[in-house]
Amino acid sequence: MSMNYDAAVAAYEPTLGLEVHVELNTNSKMFCSCSTEFGAEPNTQTCPVCLGLPGSLPVVNGKAIESTILIGLALNCSIAPFSRFARKNYFYPDMPKNFQTSQFDEPICINGYLDVEIETDEGAKTFRVDIERVHMEEDTGKSLHVGGSTGRIHGAEYSLLDYNRAGIPLVEIVTRIVPGTGKYAPQVARAYVTELRDILRSLGVSDVKMEQGSLRCDANVSIAPISSGKLGTRSETKNVNSLRSVERAVAGEIERQANRLESGERIIQETRHFLEESGQTRPGRSKETAEDYRYFPEPDLVPVTPDADWIEELRKTLPEKPSLRRKRLQEEWNVPAKEMESMVNAELLDVVEETVKLGADATRARSWWLGEVSRLANEKEVAPTSLITAPQVAEVIALIAGGELTDKLARQVVEGVINGEGTPREVIDKRGLKVVSDDSALMVAIEAAIAAQPDTAERIRGGNIPAAGALIGAVMKATGGQADAAKVRELLLKHLGQG
Amino acid sequence: MTNIYSTAAQMSAALATKEVSSVDLTQQHLDRIAKVDGDVHAFLHVDTDGALAQAEAADKLRAAGGAISPLAGVPLALKDVLAQKGIPTTCGSKMLENWRPPYDSTVVTKLKAAGVVILGKTNMDEFAMGSSTENSAYGPTHNPWDLDRIPGGSGGGSSAALAAFEAPLAIGTDTGGSIRQPAAVTGTVGVKPTYGGVSRFGLVAFSSSLDQAGPCARTVLDTALLHEVIAGYDERDSTSINQAVPDVVAAAKRHDVKGMKIGVVKELGGDGFQAGVSQRFQEALDILVANGAEIVEVSCPNFEYALAAYYLIAPSEASSNLARFDSMRYGIRIGDDGTVGAEEVMRATRHLGFGPEVKRRIILGTYALSSGFYDAYYGSAQKVRTLIKRDYERAFESVDVLVSPTCPTTAFKIGEKADDPLAMYLNDIATIPVNMAGIGGMSLPCGLAPEDNLPVGFQIMSPVMQDDRMYRVGGTLEAALVSKWGAPLLSADTKLAVK
């Protein structure tokens, strides 16, 4: 390409728009009682309703309504006292009724916003992303097109259909266009999806796993010459399966569009697919001839009319905003931003906070979870929180603080707990890992060390404190590491008249 | 002697005293079907073994002295638009040839729970679209009064089965008159309950906001007994009304209309109505006056637009409801020779699977919902619908029920209107407003038109969830007419075209 990203954003002003689809984690589907569990045998979680069999009728999942209202409230939306489902009509084999029950001109949540902060050349800056609407709909089934080179229906030898996903509750969150991001459009897009994901996770309404498709992002991007005051033709990039991809996809589209315009071509309004390997997008369906979905109010469902008191009750249950919570914890714990980010990305913020609440020192709690526990979890390819609990880690930290364990012994205790040998106390007893804290026993070892290295002892008596290291090391070795090094140091120095 | 000419109430009483067994009664009806249905063609499927098994079960339950519903053991004919597990459910369409639902509709569940014996599935216009059953893919049903004439539609199979004494009870569905118009032209009784009064779960949708299943029989009381069995709130149908079912059986038995105010709808009579129809209607009014009712004329000015609005709303919903018939999951599949794609197979299947009337309405509905036309067509039609509701509400402020002839004419000849859809549509001019407003409507016979000796229907309309009112008026009128005639219109002595 002739024009790189920096040149592109020097000449063109990008405009963003983001559509995020979230699979709710309700136990049952949007309009029937089928299970929503991920990964079941194909077509085992279906019934006449989600298969769209003749005569079947939908019934709205109340939990899905509640989750959607919570999302709307967390995104500062108004909750419509009256909203309706609508049918979106189009033919596709993985859609059992050949219409999708969605919401059209009467969505449940409207007019919200989400503030996101990014690092700019001038320091941290907040961008407000306006939310146009949050609405409910049902997911489609999944098609697997076998044979053919593209993996698409055209050219396939045959297709397999799995309707387990058909009817899973989806919430679509649509932003208004986000102008004025300039060259930071990719970062703003990423920060928005990140913050949104964190909010959804804190609400407990979705698994928000981009790689499993429970959170999907479509990025709308257009560009126009800087200061033209115009909006360009937009493309809609799909298949963006990670936070990093959101950023790359937006940057890639800005660059691609700039190069097209530079070479005198026009931008085609179309769907594009993000290619993970190259960071490029490839063309999909053209939207130049807009498909007519023939929306009309779903006659099989009654309007959604949530009670105002209920909405206020739900509002009271909203958790602390993740961005504010992170700021608060960062201050309370006094940790660098980078470390905070590591905890968030490792999904360990909750468990670290719980461990701290149980009395553990924040720095120690963080280093245990991010360090030893995460290392063992990586080895076993499981989540750290599935190995050990916050109370157990807190207990280990308390034992260290109380001088009953050294860091080295504590690692063995943690390993024992993970191996199922019992509580930290039980592991200590079974493995006999108690710190040698009996002063007289330690003194025997200290005197033995002095006797073995009389010269070193003499230097310490003469005021050379750093020389104590050699004697402490010898004592530790003699006690098999079961002594508390700080205690050894204290006793040694005192004995040599330096305490 | 209890036999096929008895009423359902009489059969119920005879079963209770064990004068007759359900197996015997069921066999009599199966014999009758075998004898006359070659000429009438009321049934698409006769479930001989299933019916006899249900009859035996009902007899056993009765012998064991178990708590039993009044209609336990009484045979019934089911319109082929309602899903019955394991029994072919075609909706009169080639599209669903041999489709056997894996589930029961709520109506069938209730019938089975009450021990009603389901003899089989009755013929109908394809997907309930029509007024003559000529649109059935399996050939027309013939009117037992005159085999060259139509039995009404879409539920002509159910009404003909009643008139030909093939069944004492039947289930119909009514979207624009498909229960009441067939009842009128066959001299039987049919009730479209309040919309939401009977669950639509398992009723293969034509127009979701208008469809309503209802009871059919030869007497008002029998209709009420069946109404009581199938009505009531169903959590699987979001549009079903969560209120107690009015006591329709008591109302049917009351035989008293003293002090009731009955409104004659000015717009549903006069010009365009057959002379004999108007005459019998007037005589019925005189009888009601003689029984103490007060008759007033009521104007419903917006009814003029009901037919036009109906033919926008019903086809619009149908175009979406019938989209699911794409050969992917059930029903017939045409053209799948391995050389063409899914889209071509869908197209070929829909081309050959749907009849001309269904296609006409799908095209009409697709057009009416199209972007750019939606407001002018579907939107305006919904406004008319609101105006029609208001006309009714205003009328019911001053009268208890409204009445009119059910249809402008008696049964017309098969083929007479087949090439003139508009003339066919006009047959439903007096029944359609009821569906548009979601209120209750009944048709009962009020005599034979002098000019052609064919049955005339008298329509009674009652406000939402006040269905008992039409039973009260209908029961009174029926008793007075039978006493005047000396026998019911349909009895063992009636001169039918089938012996």
Question: Would you mind describing this structure in some detail?
Answer:
Chain A is of the alpha+beta class and 499 residues long. Chain A folds into three domains: 5-309, no CATH class; 320-431, no CATH class; 439-495, Arc Repressor Mutant, subunit A. In chain A, 39% of the residues lie in helices and 19% in strands. Chain A has 16 helices and 14 strands. Chain A has helices at 5-11, 62-74, 185-203, 243-262, 308-316, 322-333, 337-345, 349-357, 362-380, 390-401, 407-418, 424-431, 439-452, 454-461, 468-478, 485-495; strands at residues 12-23, 78-79, 86-89, 99-102, 109-120, 123-138, 142-146, 158-162, 169-175, 215-225, 235-240, 270-274, 281-286, 296-297. In chain A, the strands form three sheets. A nine-stranded mixed beta sheet of chain A has the order 2-5-6-9-1-10-11-12-13. In chain A, strands 4-3-14 form a three-stranded antiparallel beta sheet, with no helix packed on it. In chain A, strands 7-8 form a two-stranded antiparallel ribbon. In chain A, α15 (468-478) packs across α16. Chain B has helices at 8-16, 22-40, 48-63, 106-113, 156-163, 180-186, 220-230, 248-254, 275-290, 306-321, 342-353, 356-369, 375-398, 421-426, 432-437, 467-485, and strands at residues 43-46, 75-79, 117-122, 169-173, 189-192, 213-217, 261-265, 294-298, 401-405, 440-448, 455-462. Chain B has one domain: Alpha-Beta Complex (Amidase signature (AS) enzymes), CATH 3.90.1300.10. Chain B has 499 residues and is of the alpha/beta class. The radius of gyration of chain B is 21 Å and the shape is globular. The two termini of chain B are 19 Å apart. The relative contact order of chain B is 0.14.
Number of domains of chain A: 3
Element order of chain B: H for helix, E for strand: HHEHEHEHEHEEHHEHEHHHHEHHEEH
* Rg over C-alpha atoms of chain A, rounded to the nearest angstrom: 30 Å
Average residue pLDDT of chain B: 97
What's the story with the biggest beta sheet of chain A? 9 strands, mixed
Hey, roughly how much beta strand do the residues of chain A contain?
15-25%
- The proportion of residues forming helix of chain A, as a percent range, comes to 25-40%
Shape of chain B: globular
**Helix/strand/pairing class of chain A, anyone?**
alpha+beta
Sequence stretches where pLDDT stays below 50 over 5 or more residues of chain B: none
| Spatial sequence of strands, sheet with the most strands of chain A | 2-5-6-9-1-10-11-12-13
Largest sheet of chain B: 11 strands, mixed
Question: How many beta-strand runs of chain A?
Answer: 14
In terms of DSSP E residues, the strand content of chain B is 5-15%
Distance between the termini of chain A: 71 Å
Task: Determine and state the CATH class of chain B.
Answer: Alpha Beta
- Taken together, the total number of domains of chain B comes to 1
